[in-house]
């Protein structure tokens, strides 16, 4: 397995209305997403969708 600098790190806060996804990508790039916690027409699970994106 790669060193910590070569891995993705995620923090997810799933609330009643929104799910926040924080991703630290290899190389230090940071990405933050806010998704609806429930949006069955577009995805089955907000945390999984946030990681996918």
Automatic annotation (TrEMBL):
Coiled coil: none annotated. Residues 10-53 form the Hydantoinase/oxoprolinase N-terminal domain. Pfam families: Hydant_A_N. GO terms for molecular function: hydrolase activity. It comes from the Eukaryota. This is 5-oxoprolinase (ATP-hydrolysing).
